[in-house]
Amino acid sequence: MTLNEGYSFRRVLDRGIAGHSTLSYLVHNFPHSTEADWRFRLQAGEVLLDDNTARGPECLKPGSILIWNRPGWVECETPQTYGLIYRDEHILVVDKPSGLPTLPGAGYFRNTLWSLVRTDFPEARPLHRLGRATSGLLLFALNSQAAATLSQRWTLVHKQYQALGSGVASLQTYDIRIPIGPQRHSRLGHVHAASPAGKPAHSIARTLQRRERTTVFEVDLLTGRPHQIRIHLAAIGHPLEGDPLYAAGGLPLTDQPGLPGDAGYWLHARRLKFDHPASGEPLDLTAPLPEILRCDQRVGRESDP
Hints:
This protein has 305 residues and is an alpha+beta fold. The protein is built from five helices and 16 strands. The chain has helices spanning 22-29, 35-43, 113-120, 144-152, 228-235; strands at residues 7-12, 47-49, 52-53, 65-70, 83-87, 91-96, 125-126, 135-141, 158-166, 173-176, 180-185, 189-194, 203-210, 214-221, 267-275, 282-286.
């Protein structure tokens, strides 16, 4: 098995570090590793605080820069291909397969979509991200002007998904405006979930096909909160079929909840509509659907006409 080249995780510290030492901050904020793990990394000189080797007891201050230089490691295998949907000198749109992380993180660095795309298009910069299990369209800028223009107009980019929800939907259309914010998670401390105190979030879900025990939904994403579609469909009583994290109501499962990157569900970024950043030409791009989300199947009870 081949090790990757390692990765430097960088964090600029804010006021939330009050009262923390380097060790307590790492243990509190990165519970994927134990205190013993972080002590070992500190002793090995892998952690820097303002470019100096950290030992653990240092009292942290807002504005300091904490870096963990993670040595190379063997990554889990992921798909190593992607589909090319659109390309010109300014932008690139690709079709990401399920199981491939968009960006480095959670144990992945080389085996990511960005790494694969940069091999072919070194200047490519992703303008958004999809969850590891989510498939479909992802937009990259190929120069700084395109990146700046699209970032400024991001609220005008129309994003549409298809998803397989559990249960049979009773309504044809759901206007979902449930806020999303941190909620307790037994393994991570907190995850994004439905929260009355959270940030505003808005989705429109339409029933495309009713099956025997599931429903195919088309979802327009009108805001971009983390895990928004998974949370919103769960909140209306139709969590994604096979979702290991969210239960009906939009909160994390209480019995051995999964992690945000765990797979098992079907969610596909099917459509992107936006104006080209250079020409202003309207673009309406789609990605082929996974077979399970195709509504020409005669499975169970179809949606009402």
